[in-house]
Amino acid sequence: MKALRRAYLGLVLVFLYAPIAVLVVYSFNQSETRAVWGGLSLKWYQALFHDKNILDALYVTVSVAALATMAATVLGTIAAIGIHSMKSWTRDLFMNVTNLPMLMPDIVTGISLMILFIFMKVPRGYGTMLLAHVTFDIPYVIFSVLPRLKRMNPNLYEAALDLGARPQTALLKVILPEILPGVITGALLSFTMSLDDFAISYFTSVRTANLSMLIYSMTRRKVPPTINALSAIMFVTVLVLLFVVNNRGSDTGRGRGTSGGSAP
Amino acid sequence: MVEDMHLIELENCTKEFDGFEALKQVSLYIRKQEFVTLLGPSGCGKTTTLRLIGGFEQPTTGRVFFEGTDITGVPPYRRSVNTVFQKYALFPHLDVFENIAFGLKIAKVQKADIKRRVAEMLELVGLRGYEKRDIEALSGGQQQRVAIARALVNEPEVLLLDEPLGALDQRLRKDMQLELKKMQQRLGITFLYVTHDQEEALTMSDTIVVMREGRIQQIGTPKKIYDEPKNAFVADFIGESNILPGVMLYDRRVRFADFEFTCEDSGFGTNAPVDVVVRPEDIVVYPDRGMLKGIVRSVLFKGVHYEMMVDTGAFTFKVHSTMMQPEGAEIGLSILPDGIHIMRKSEPVKDPQEEGEAL
Amino acid sequence: MKRSYFAAPYGLWMAVFTIVPIFLIAYYAFTLGGGFSIENFRMFLEPAFVGILTFSLWLAFLCTVICLVIGYPAALLLAAKDMKRSSIVVVLFVIPMWMNFLLRTYAWMTLLEDTGLINRFLEWIGIGRQRLMYTEQAVLMGMVYNFLPFMIFPVYSVLSKRDERLLEAAQDLGANAFMTFLRVTFPLSVPGIVSGVTMVFMPAVTTFVIPRLLGGGTFMMFGDLIENQFLTMDDWHFGSALSLIMMVLILISVGILNRADPSGQAAEGGGLW
Fold first, then answer.
1. What residues in A contact C99, CB-CB < 8 Å?
2. Under an 8 A CB cutoff, do C206 and A103 touch?
3. Domains along chain A?
4. pTM assigned to the model
5. Is residue C258 assigned to a domain?
6. Structural domain boundaries, residue C216
7. Lowest mean pLDDT: which of A119-128, B273-282, C69-78, C123-132?
8. C243 with A115: CB under 8 angstroms?
9. By CB distance 3.0 to 4.6 Å, which of B39, B65, B97, B147 could disulfide with B9?
């Protein structure tokens, strides 16, 4: 019975990993066409690091994700604190507006922002892509921080005031440490969402391409084997990152007992 | 011990939350070094009163005074009172030392001083050597002590305690009651204590303030409140009692349960309808004689005494006696003059359980 | 300063970048040639366009069902008691989700193309080369592959939080393994299913990348159609009308799904983490 279960999970895993594995294997292929196996080679990795298009797109992807995450984390955390202390109807209004970008299909979000930028005659490039990313990242931060605020003992803030802390000190020294795990979760979510985004970037930027956009345009012509090398590198990066994050999650989980699924 | 100076005074304080009146015209003073308890069922406004003094809420109307100066509107971090919160509100991201040192660090006390004073406090609450412990690794009782230490280390003029023992088990509660009382006497700090537990209030307080539905019902010493409840609500809430309607015939003469009794009260006029309170332990049981005759309907053993429900036809009395009478037996009951308390008629007592928590 | 004002900058941001753009779409959808018009919506009613929508819905529905059929048992097994401690296995299921979406889809191109691995395997066992790319099945395959983790995770996260004692209680009350599943485990997992269905169905209906790459433009899905109006046909009015239709469709289906899950757990964001 147990073996059967494992076999099933194994089969699903094979389905999930087979395509990625194929890319990784091909990344070491000496031959340019996938039809032929030309022996082991690292030449696509070398080519990757000299491909200006890919490196530029990589830079755009990572920097947009980092900047958008920073902005969204700050804005979203402050907003969550504000929303948390709201009365019912304003709170409902804000929550519905926050839900909207999460419910809207990416393509519609992208198009609506594209119309906005064209309407306001803002040339679509790096800046507009960044604005769009901040917009779809903030709700993730708010949804990660709010449960933390809800779970927090409401007297903590008052206890700090009671002990002589001014409101801003209390916010910084008591509330922020309390909600920090939620803030970090929100930031990580934002970052990965930004890294992975295609549809919204595609509509909000024409002059600057991120990785997803570059790969998309390549598949329309011919995909160079350097992309296989890129896949392999990204796969390993994700692998390492997730295991690091996972360990962090279980550590805080043991220490606090209330980490409540903050990490996968 | 208690000085006569008014340390804190509330003047006609009213508090509304979204149209709900949590406090109605509350006036109250607390003297220096006094142990005052706000007592009442949930939703009676006792916690709101405490929060007005702590500065967490502002009165809708009315003023709060501290040593004679108006402090209405002064934020909590500028008041020389400290609070022990209901569920302690210890900072989970800080250890025991950092929690207790929090207020001192804000006040920019020197490092060496902080260390010394925190150590003193831990000694006082019996947690020596617990500095580096994680808050969540402490038991409920230990967290309780840390919360008290965190408040006391700032040497407040008044310590506000909001049901501080509510989360502890029975045994620990009793120990902590004694300890808190001792601490208060030793440090000479004014305590304002909130509880719904009448026994706790009776054991610890110099003065008890009984509240109900946002109004003060009675203020007095524990003995006075127990012996001379001002109305049926206080009588019912403090201790167990038989409350029944009666008629004050003239001074020192009252009729209830179809019998005329001699009592010690006067000043109610003649033939005035009143409420009569008789504590179950003030009813004397005789096997054969007595002022009233009744049939024992039920008997419960309560540890020290038996609790019997005795039906006299006009009223079913709750009676405490060390002598067991079997169910169904006809017995006699007598009430001595000092066991009868006369109160003016008040509105019927509602079951406190039915009222929602105001906060 | 009142603490609720903290949300003011965010409110302003969302007004500019979410509310105004939606109104712009609505504006274009309801105008044509400078005046108010519902012509854009009437145009949508042409059989060709309605056909594209029903085809997209059908494909997304198939994708959702397949994901549920494959994903639910996987989630159940992952949440089982003997698996709980091995969080590594769980992480293994997450990893593909974090790979770049375009790369994942491109990976299937390399598998399905005429000279791809699958075809070479088919040739080798003697079946011969098949046309795999640019078919409905290829698009469906790509969708299932991309969205399967979004079904497994919400279900897993709900099931893994369930109280083990409930299962013991059910057994204590005489339920066998099957009855325990039917009466306890499955009802408990409904919020996860609702969340998973939302997270698979929504992107599946709206995707235009997967049909482009794996369908090769041989047939159109609703997402393609919208993208086409804006970037190829330059007909913002019709495109906006289509976007509006899609938004309303999504909102309605989310509303229906949330009704199926009164506890509202699905709305909390599905538990990607």
1. 20, 231, 234-235, 238
2. no
3. 56-224 (1.10.3720.10)
4. 0.81
5. no
6. 49-221
7. C123-132
8. no
9. B65
List the single residue in A with minimal CA-CA distance to C29.
Answer: A112
Q: Which fold is adopted by the domain B242-344? A: OB fold (Dihydrolipoamide Acetyltransferase, E2P) (2.40.50)
pLDDT at A258 > cutoff 80:
no
Residue A34 has pLDDT above 80, yes or no: no
A108 touches chain C (CB under 8 A): yes
Residue C42 within any structural domain of the chain: no
Query: What digits encode the pLDDT tens for the residues C230-258?
Result: 999 999 999 999 999 999 988 888 888 87
Q: Which CATH number, 3.40.50.300, 1.10.3720.10, 1.20.1070.10, 3.40.640.10, labels domain B6-227?
A: 3.40.50.300
A196/A212 Cα distance (integer angstroms): 7
Residue C96: pLDDT band (50, 70, 90) is confident
Q: What is the pLDDT of residues B58-82, one digit of tens each?
A: 999 999 999 989 999 899 999 989 9
> How many domains is chain C partitioned into structurally?
1
Q: Above 50 in pLDDT, residue A88?
A: yes
Say whether pLDDT at A156 is over 90.
Answer: yes
> Rounded to whole angstroms, what are the CA distances from B62 to B15, B33, B65, B227?
9, 24, 10, 32
Delimit the CATH 2.40.50.140 region(s) of chain B: 242-344
CATH of the domain at C74: 1.10.3720.10
CB contact under 8 A, B87 and A153: yes
Tell me what percent of the residues of chain B surpass a pLDDT of 90: 64
Smallest CA–CA separation between B57 and chain A, in Å? Answer: 11
Cα dihedral sign, C29-C34-C37-C41: negative
Q: Say whether B91 and A162 touch across the interface (CB within 8 A).
A: no
- Find, among A197, A223, A180, the residue nearest to A27 by Cα: A223
Could you tell me which residues come within 8 angstroms of residue A180 by beta carbon, excluding any fewer than 6 positions away? B93
pLDDT in tens, A109-151: 999 999 999 999 999 999 999 999 999 999 999 999 999 999 8
Are A and B close enough to touch, i.e. 3+ CB pairs under 8 angstroms? yes
By the CB < 8 Å criterion, does A260 face chain B?
Answer: no
Substitution target in C95, C105, C227 with the highest count of A β-carbons within 10 Å is: C95
B137 touches chain A (CB under 8 A): no
Whether chain C lies against chain A with 3 or more Cβ pairs closer than 8 A is: yes
